[in-house]
Specification:
Number of helices: 5
Structural class: alpha+beta
Strand order of the largest sheet: 4-3-7-6-5
Helix content: 40-55%
Order of helices and strands: EEHEEHHHEEEH
Radius of gyration: 35 Å
Distance between the termini: 147 Å
Strand content: 15-25%
């Protein structure tokens, strides 16, 4: 004999429920499936929540596979680099990615840091190699102000060094003049 039963889906957004009328085994199976569908809906909701973290991150994040194809760009990276998807692996933000992949694949390390200049801005990058997905993730932060401070500090150091050399030269000249004057004063005048 054929078992007849009615299966319907209810409330897809809230966890999908199966309604089954008929045999006890089928009802038991429907209960198990309903439980799995509920857990699946909870997992999907958790995944949607977790997916907001990189999207809402105020720093650029880009993922690239080991063949140079971009697989993810967050909103901030798109705002700062609107051409990154078109330029892909040749974009200055991803410059040198082939060497980074090669070095990280041949190393026990999975993270490397670097600084990259794009136009007038500087970005500090933390680059992660993800072996499970054969990809690298670029997490960046704008360090332009820090770099400008470093340049200013280097210029101040250079200026201070030059000023010190100038002062030492002036002191040396004054000492020579003073020695010559003292010598002249000690030497009797002869006519």
């Amino acid at each position: 004999t054929r078992l007849s039963y009615n299966v319907s889906r209810i409330g897809e957004e809230t966890g999908a429920t199966l309604a089954v009328q008929g045999q006890d085994e089928v009802s038991h199976l429907a209960g198990a499936i309903n439980g799995m569908l509920g857990r699946l809906a909870e997992s999907e909701q958790a995944l949607r929540h977790l997916a907001t973290f990189p999207e809402m991150n105020p720093t650029p994040i880009v993922e690239l596979d080991v063949n140079g194809k971009i697989s993810y760009v967050n909103a901030e990276a798109m705002r700062i680099f609107p051409d990154i998807e078109q330029r892909a692996a040749v974009h200055p933000y991803l410059e040198g990615w082939e060497n980074i992949v090669r070095n990280l694949q041949n190393s026990t390390e999975t993270v490397v840091g670097r600084e990259v200049r794009i136009g007038d801005n500087w970005y500090g990058q933390t680059i992660h190699y993800v072996p499970e997905t054969q990809s690298i993730r670029f997490y960046g932060r704008d360090i332009t102000e820090k770099k400008l401070d470093e340049v200013e500090m280097q210029q101040l150091y250079k200026d201070e060094r030059q000023l010190r050399q100038d002062l030492e030269g002036d002191i040396k000249k004054r000492l020579e003049f003073t020695r010559a004057l003292v010598h002249e004063l000690k030497t009797p005048l002869t006519t």
